[in-house]
Amino acid sequence: MTNTNDPTQQFRLDGKVALVTGGSRGLGREMVMAFARCGADVVIASRKEEACVLLAKEVENETGQRALGVGAHVGKWEENEALAKRALDHFGKVDVLVNNAGMSPVYDGVGSITEALYDKVMDVNLKGPFRLSCALAESMLEGEGGSILFVSSTAAVQATPGEVPYGAAKAGLHSLTKSLSRTWAPKIRVNCIMPGAFMTDISKAWPEAMVKGLESTIPMGRGGQPNEIVGAALYLASAASAYTTGTVVKVDGGFAFDMG
């Protein structure tokens, strides 16, 4: 029997279906596992379908929840539509969407940015999340509603010379958070997590000087551990945030001053 006096029950996701893009590794993987451990069935999407399928099996073995791994390139309009259809056909609904997939290619300087690189960054970081959200919003509106999360970056508000297109795309997610939260209210809540530097597998390629610099540039004196994204994700995905929409939640160790 559920204890209605226990506030932690608000964070449960029993009976819910959550879809996470970029879900096979890094922050996405942590959110997938957290959602399943809190009772949700999960759809794990990324460009590498094999990795998604492997994680889906791990989720089912560890938690007993149903899991579906799907290969999808969120930078392609039609693949977002196909992903939404696959999830809905398999589970009948999606209650939680986390637009986590992203990319920030390295370039030599702003003048060296090609049209192809610019378009690729915008497609994956901004166009894809918009299209997938729209593709699933219709079923949420027809059903019991839902929660949509965007995952931006502190580059949205404090971008560096090496993150110009990426920062612009992530700032666009902040705008989508505000506009879509008003468009689909009150049935769909739309919020955004703004992470700072996290020590995922990607951070292993960072120069030593950059990692060392985190100690002086981040008030907490370090980069975040991947599992430290879970609290914000569970809050925004669950009934614990029932009165929260149109909000950007900063999870960055205190790095960014501007919320965007």
Descriptive account of the structure:
By secondary structure, the chain is α/β, with parallel strands linked by helices. It has a single domain (11-251), classed as 3-Layer(aba) Sandwich (Rossmann fold). Helix content is 42%, strand content 15%. It contains 7 helices and 7 strands; from the N terminus they run E-H-E-H-E-H-E-H-E-H-E-H-H-E. The N and C termini lie far apart (42 Å). 46% of the residues are buried.
Give the topology, please:
Blueprint: E1 17-21, H1 26-37, E2 41-46, H2 49-63, E3 67-71, H3 77-91, E4 96-99, H4 115-142, E5 146-151, H5 164-183, E6 188-195, H6 208-217, H7 230-237, E7 248-251
Parallel strand pairs: 1-2, 1-4, 2-3, 4-5, 5-6, 6-7
Helix pairs in contact: 3-4, 4-5
Task: Quickly list its features.
single chain; 260 residues; Rossmann fold; 7 helices
Give a nutshell description of this structure:
By secondary structure, the protein is an alpha/beta fold. The protein has seven helices and seven strands.
Coarse morphology: globular
* Tally of alpha and pi helices: 7
First-residue to last-residue Cα separation: 42 Å
| Strand elements, count | 7
* Structural Rg: 18 Å
Poorly predicted segments? none
In N-to-C order, the SSE pattern is EHEHEHEHEHEHHE
Q: What percent of residues are in strands?
A: 5-15%
The overall pLDDT, averaged over residues, is 94
| Biggest beta sheet attributes | 7 strands, parallel
Strand order of the largest sheet: 3-2-1-4-5-6-7
